[in-house]
Amino acid sequence: MASPVSSSPSPVFHIRSADAADLPAITHCTLSAFTLFDVFGPAWNSDSGLLPARLSALPESHGFVAVDEKNSVIGHAQWTHVAMHLLGGTRRAACLAPLSVRADRQRQGIGGALIRQGIAALREAGIDLLFLLGHEAYYPRFGLQCGCLGRHALSIAMPEALAADPEGYRLRPLHDGDEFALRALWHRLCGGVDGALEPGPGLLPWSSATRGIIACVLERGGQIVGHARFDARAEAMADSGVLRFLAADAASAGVLASRIAGWTGWQAKSLTLPLPAGSAHVQELFAGREPEPVFERWAPGMAMALQQNETETLLARIQAGEAPPLFIEWPSLFDY
Prior knowledge:
The chain is of the alpha+beta class. The protein has 2 domains: 3-147 and 299-335, Gcn5-related N-acetyltransferase (GNAT) (Aminopeptidase, 3-Layer(aba) Sandwich), CATH 3.40.630.30; 151-296, Aminopeptidase. It contains 8 helices and 15 strands. It has a 7-stranded mixed beta sheet. Strands 7, 12, 13 and 15 form a 4-stranded mixed beta sheet that branches. The chain is globular.
């Protein structure tokens, strides 16, 4: 159902649910909004045409568009549903990405209207928690709390770069069917950590369509023993360029890290891997290598409890410094 919104003296606009016919206009709107910022660089223009396919492949989501009096899309918000491990159980959560307003219609209340509509719809749908990565001066006005999400990682000494696979190993692209082995690896290393997001079906959660971001698997004897998604673009750095890292054992972890070092050519003393340091299985991967835990609270990492339950209590404890921020691996949609 459309909800009329006006922001005087701007013309009236309406918020309604998005559908497949809106995808080309959503792409144009998103490109218009984000190419204003140099941070996205040329790769954004190359990838923008892939956004409709990525959005239509999402397993479950709430998408909303703002349309003007001519029914042209002038804003868009996409809330992707995810299952989040929290307090010993699984909770329904939703992540906002992307939120965009056409360049010529910004600062007219359209983004805020899209957010409020999404929050109301998701609360009614029984979603327990919302989260996003965004500007800390903007989103708190809608009830989101800063600093609820953070980086849990391990820093290891930069391994010797390998330019080719060692005997018995093969680094290759993703193939259909890989997701079953990858999900098993993920559950072993990350599945029990507060904030961990259950990977969805298919290859989408494991891949990246952004040019220069590599998604690969490592095989040994025909069996998958590792997976990584890392940024191989020139501006990427060793302390943040690895976006996911999974390995079955210490030997596989060593090979995978060395192949990433060889591929990227990072000139750094250490390599940071996005793994929860508190996981016993993660510690086994680097036994004897003295990994250094990396722990950061991100002000832009925001969350909001939609129901009055223990999730709301946990976020209050995080805000008070009584509990660590949630461990989040950002979905591949954030690669854009």
